[in-house]
Amino acid sequence: MIDVYSWDTPNGQKVTICLEECRLKYRLVPVNIRQGDQRDSSFLERFPNGKIPAIVDHGCQSGRPVQLFESGAILHYLANRSTALAIKGPAEQAAILSWLFWQVSALGPAIGQWGRNAGPDGTAQVEVWFRQEVIRLMTVLDQRLATNDYLAGSAYSIADIACFTWLRRESIYMRRFPFDNLPDFPATRIWLDRIAERPAVRRGLAASATLTTD
Ligand SMILES: N[C@@H](CCC(=O)N[C@@H](CS)C(=O)NCC(=O)O)C(=O)O
Fold first, then answer.
1. What domains does the chain contain, in order, with CATH numbers?
2. Residue 26's Cα: distance from chain center in Å?
């Protein structure tokens, strides 16, 4: 059994989708980040960065619980823990990790900062910078997807899960900055629809949605 400390955000959704894809048993532990649960001492003692998602795996062969935070690290751990999303060989690993790290270091922070700096509380200059950066990153993504069904090549992987939750039409950010207001990214649209149809993706998003109470 894997305990998932989470909230219904793009980073949290990555983990429930991955768990559903891998058919691993898990239980959700809500961490209401709107109320500041992530700064409780009991949470910080285990997960010092004070952010969701985080997991504790009670089912490892060593018999000792394994705990980790950072969504990219969690996805990589879960992919190695199952056969469904197992990484096959160094070439596939190189492609998956390149795009996974790209998401956690560039795409996610840029979209998140754009979201925070747009609107009445943001400054116009910062908003413009992040908008341009998001468009640049989405252009990189779209070019990759124009010649590949998935980010790491022909096979669906944790890199796709990581980017999908941020870019899907219903994400909190894409609801604010609809694709209609952005340049066209045709390959990205097709890729998003293909991933959204996956039964495990639907189950993972539905599981994550049970966490939101406000
Ligand atoms: N790099 C981290 C980012 C995690 C993150 O920013 N989590 C947000 C929710 S999506 C959070 O916990 N925010 C609460 C806070 O910053 O206090 C990851 O990929 O897991």
1. 2-84+200-209 (3.40.30.10), 89-198 (1.20.1050.10)
2. 17
For the chain, what's the residue count?
214
Buried b (16+ CB within 10 A) or exposed e, 145-168: beeeebbbbebbbbbbbbbbbbbb
168-195 pLDDT per residue, tens: 988 888 777 666 677 889 999 999 999 9
Sign of CA dihedral 118, 123, 124, 126: negative
As for ligand 1, residues whose beta carbon falls within 6 Å of it are: 9, 11, 33, 38, 50-53, 70-72, 104
Among 212, 176, 202, residue whose Cα is nearest residue 20: 202
How remote is the CA of residue 11 from the centroid of ligand 1, in Å? 7
pLDDT tens figures, 19-56: 999 999 999 999 999 999 999 999 999 998 999 999 99
For residue 104, the CA-to-ligand 1 centroid distance in Å is 10
The winner for highest mean pLDDT among 79-88, 95-104, 126-135 is: 95-104
Closest alpha carbon to 162 in 54, 72, 49, 68: 72
Is 70 exceeded by the pLDDT of residue 15? yes
